Amino acid sequence: MPNTHPGTDRGREVRRRLLATAAELIAELGWTAVSTRVLAARAGVRPGLVHYHFANLPALLREAAMTDVRRLLADTETGLDGLDPERAVAEILTALDAYTGHDPASLLMTETFLAATRDPELHRELRAAVHDFRRRVTDLLARHRVPEPAATAAVLLAAFDGIVIHKALDPALDAHRTLPVFRRLIAAATGDETEEDE
């Protein structure tokens, strides 16, 4: 039988497969419905390998979820380089059009936020990741002299999360509808109010 020790190529592949499968199952079944047996069966490994590679199932679920959350935030952050606040908001809202509220990424994020209310370790990791991203947005706003940049960044990010959640109920809540509203808010905050956008 192939060596599945975590330090071997085979072990790393098993670990990667378990993490990817866990993320899929969290979105598909919900956080609390993922069991070691179901996870192992979907990943095509023996159940014992789950605990061989991870301290326990909650640790595996945390790592799977946070790997995807950090990747999503990092991709978004990279896309903000060199943008002014209005363009940054436009880029984020346009990117959010890819999420329906029912897609795997939306469901994974929703499940992770909910699970973080019950799992202190997940709460700590998620809070740190979100705060790091919020600091980046705060810095962008501060460079463009937006008043109260930290509070503004917090409200903007909460609004973006809310849009994704509400899109599960109202699929038409896309960038075409939301961007003019955000433009007016940014213009009011910066004192740069212009003629009504199209």
UniProtKB/TrEMBL annotation:
Residues 12-72 form the HTH tetR-type domain. InterPro entries: Homeodomain-like_sf, HTH-type_TetR-like_transc_reg, HTH_TetR, Tet_transcr_reg_TetR-rel_C_sf, TetR_C_31. Gene3D superfamilies: Tetracycline Repressor, domain 2. Residues 35-54 bind DNA. Keywords: DNA-binding. PROSITE patterns: HTH_TETR_2. One of its GO terms (molecular function) is DNA-binding transcription factor activity. This is TetR family transcriptional regulator. It comes from Stackebrandtia albiflava. The lineage of its organism: Bacteria, Bacillati, Actinomycetota, Actinomycetes, Glycomycetales.
